[in-house]
Amino acid sequence: MKKTAIIGISVIAIAIAVIICTYTDSSTYGSFAEAKSSQTELHVVGKLNKERVMVYDPRKDANYFSFYMTDNKGLACKVIFNGAKPQDFERSEQIVLTGKMIDDEFHASKILMKCPSKYTKDQVEITGNNPSTKS
Amino acid sequence: MNAQFLGEHLLPGKLGQFFVILSFGSALLSAISYYFATIKDKSTDNSWQAIARIAFIINILAVLGIGICLFYIIYNHLFEYHYAWSHSSKTLPVYYIISCFWEGQEGSFWLWMFWQSVLGSVLLWKAKSWENAVITTVMLSQTFLASMLIGVEIWGTRIGSSPFILLRQAMEAPIFSRPDYLSLIQDGNGLNPLLQNYWMVIHPPTLFLGFASMIIPFSFAIAGLWQKRYNEWVKPALPWALFAVMVLGAGIIMGSFWAYEALNFGGFWAWDPVENASIIPWLTLIAAVHVMLAYRNSGHAYFTATFLVLISFVLVLYASFLTRSGILGDTSVHAFTSLGMSWHLLIFLFTFLFIATLLLVSRWKGLPITKKDEETYSREFWLFIGALVLTVACIQIIATTSIPVFNTVFGTKMAPPINIIQHYNKWQAPFALVVMIISGFTQFLKYKRSNPKQFWVRMLAIAAVAIPLAAGIIYFTQVYTQLIFILLIYSAILSILANGQILIEAFKGKWKLAGSSVAHIGFALLLVGSLIAAATNKVISVNRTGIGFGDEFAKSNNPKENVILYQHEPITMDRYTVTYLGDSVVGANTFYHVKYQIIDKKTGVVKENFDLYPNAQQNAKMRQIIASPDTRHYLLHDIYTHVSSVPLKEPTEHEHHEGHSEDEQYQKPVIRLVSIGDTVHFRDGFVHVKEIKRGITVQNIPIAKGDVAISLALDVKTKGKNYRVEPIYLLKKNQVFDFGKTIDEAGLKFRFSNIYPDKNKLELMIYQKPQAAKNWIVMKAIIFPYINLFWIGGILMVIGFLISIFRRNKEVGL
Are B763 and B779 in a shared domain? Predict the structure, then answer.
């Protein structure tokens, strides 16, 4: 057998192994309920609960930020993040948290937001002197 | 709706749309004509080629026309156009108007088309016998890109997205029923502040030039298969492949520098899917360049070279699918938003994949694939192995980046790894290690056959010299925390030494041979720099009020990394005394003045002193800030600082009412009845009642007989300072007046307002100004050691590619 053929086969084998291992590294998306039962780190997708209190007072602790998020199953849970409050958090449309549940509080190690930033949202803002009549 | 609208400028848009259609039509005509020119016998009939060339030139003019129209619209703030409205504003400086082009997808497609036209023109001029076949493929790609901009509906589906669409066509809103709606739209949405950075003017064009130039080696490979000129295409394609690799590499490093200078994620590489999308085709084309060389010099690895060149461009298309289709969803923060063009991008991708596969399969039997085995002690063998390692490394990046694609295709719900950076680093480090070692020792091998003994003598010598050098570097930079770090540094030093030796030989002879060694040294330095900076960067803004800072590598679990700084209150961070001195507003940006000093503890001498101005765009209405860091660069390390949180500036209202008394600016006074010798405490200090002075004079007021004018001498101690004030009490014609005394510096006012002879008490009123809200910022500071190696390595790598291009271009004989 040719040497390159052997190398070729082993490269393909390594590549497949790499792909499989890469996917075993992958995490899962879940809900707060699943986070509570599994006690492992996972991703939770949801929306900021704007009716509940959001705490970030850097004068007390610049690394404590807490808020309530409602996951996609409709369960609201307190989330604690050890860090500064992310920029324009209030305007986030969707939040992806990475972390785990500790005593009914979700401790997030990473927060990823999808924002309808003013740069992409198609919403005409009227800044004229005479606001338009909604006719 | 046939309503007439006031103030709209429809001409530039109509003209622009015409150019879009023209560019599509001419590209298609050119591609078809070049196709027939290729398959027809040229010696008898040149008419197809003539048509193709004319169509090609019309296409260039149309592409330029689109650009000019779009620029005109943005430059003149014609907000009736959706593109201008959503990507620019009147306050935008002129030099950033050019950045508006690539904030939107349409503009970036245009940029890609523009570069493809430029590159195509070079081919028209230089490609000679390759012109017909190569430009066929280029113009096919141009046709696809132009179709992305058409934006017309055919059978209910919109094809592409035109940059010339009007605002009122792009969305529905009640104001569009008014003929004068335009007068209500005062300004556009503006350019994303993160893009308002000089690197963002130059980085996207470079990146897109890199992407665009990858079509050329691809087209040469296709032409080689198509015209059965299997052996010939590699030579002219090589300088182009090097060019693509150089430009894309430069673009990636610029992007990394922009991220480091303008974004606040605290690093230069985050393995974000968008970053990966640009590095994936770069890696495969780097691998391709190496096997192309192996093939040219030994005749081995033909298939690998062809395959890698072909797959590189397909991966460019895959990368644009990933970043532009919206499929990345919530795994990436900065992908484009979806324009509903997924299927369109997929057709583009699969067309090129299909053409490449079809040609490879149909020409398989004729391909010059050697039956001989490569020698183990030969350069071509290890070029081949190196290319394979790069490819496998690339497969790993593709696999993890494609998790959202995998989910879409198979309906699974996998999430990306929890710690994505750690995940990639863990996988890529061993690949980098192997690549480094191969790029080192292969320098001592010759093509075809080398003398193993000579090889081992040189190799072992270098390996031995590298040991003390690497040990020293590892010791001084403190990267001995993980075995893989130590091995990586050693392998990089090995590579630098081996390539350095070749470089010295090259300097003795011809400098043009230096290309590969310079590029290899650059790559090794880049790796060393990124390794040291990533492994030993240290957050110095550690919050000491929290729990202790534990294992340095468990950073994600220990993020007490932000500190609050009150104005004028210095705190100690690492070796630095850091003070926040105040803010200043320039345009939309608020700059926070942070002073860093190193003060000798014994002598109090300031040994080092510098100021950083991290900034944030404040938008009180949106209640958000967008922060950008500021970095102090030293030769051996950087100090990087950004604000994480700042008090939002409320729009200040200057209300000036008439008839306000001066006392209104003070809080409600504290009233005390005192005797001489008493001490009265107030919020920020205390006052000692010393004595009463009689018979004093009051300015401008004559003291008649029977009037009483006395003052109260008070010693005030507040905020570490002493003051003496003497408020006056005046009884004139049985009327009481009093003259309070203020200490403006301390925000205090004292009144001697009454005397109670019966109680033998004096009435003292103390007015205090409300405590000024202390100004503060929350900031994060990181020291990046040896990060300059990363940038220097990047620059060297680009220089190396440039030297190689000169050399390989000369070989083509152009």
Answer: no
Contact A23 B545 (CB under 8 A): no
Is residue B461 one of the residues assigned to a domain? no
Tell me which amino acid residue B524 is.
Answer: A
- Find which of B262-271, B742-751, B781-790 is predicted with most confidence, using mean pLDDT: B781-790
The percentage of residues in chain B with a pLDDT greater than 90, rounded to a whole number, is 44
Rounded alpha-carbon distances, angstroms, from residue B473 to B77, B135, B457, B467, B788: 55, 50, 25, 10, 15
**Residue A30: phi, psi to the nearest 5?**
-150, -175
Contacts of A113 by beta carbon, 8 Å cutoff, 6+ apart: A86, A88, A89, A92, A93, A94, A95, A96, B333
Q: For residues B77 and B189, what is the distance between their CA atoms, to the nearest angstrom? A: 11
A4–B384: do the CB atoms touch at under 8 Å?
A: yes
User: Does residue B271 share a domain with residue B386?
Assistant: yes
Cβ contact B59:B117 at 8 Å:
yes
Q: In this predicted model, what pLDDT tens digit does every residue of A105-131 receive, in sequence order?
A: 898 888 887 765 433 434 444 433 333
CA distance A99 to B539: 22
Q: Measured between CA atoms, how close is B559 to chain A, in angstroms?
A: 6
Overall fold of domain A28-114: OB fold (Dihydrolipoamide Acetyltransferase, E2P) (2.40.50)
Q: Residue A134: is its pLDDT beyond 50?
A: no
**Which of these three, B416, B433, B450, is where a domain ends?**
B416
Q: Please list the helix, strand and coil fractions of chain B in percent, rounded to the nearest 5, in that order.
A: 55, 20, 30
Q: Is B224 within the bounds of a domain? A: no
* pLDDT tens per residue across span B165-204: 888 887 777 777 777 787 777 777 777 777 777 788 889 9
Model confidence pLDDT, tens digit, residues B33-50:
999 999 986 667 788 999
Give the pLDDT band (50/70/90) at residue B548. Answer: very low
Q: Where are the domains of chain A?
A: 28-114
Q: In Å, how far is A100's CA from the nearest CA of chain B?
A: 11
- Identify the domain containing residue B605 by its residue range: 559-648+775-785
Mutate to test the interface with B, among A6, A82, A95, A96 (most CBs of B within 10 A): A82
Q: Are residues B297 and B328 in the same domain?
A: yes
Q: Which pLDDT belongs to residue B623?
A: 58
- Name the residue facing A90 among B396, B560, B623 (closest C-beta): B623
pLDDT at B739 over 50: yes
B90 contacts B100 by C-beta, under 8 angstroms = no
d(CA B627, CA B234): 48
B381 in the same domain as B279: yes
Residue B477 lies in a domain: no
For the entire predicted model, the pTM comes to: 0.83
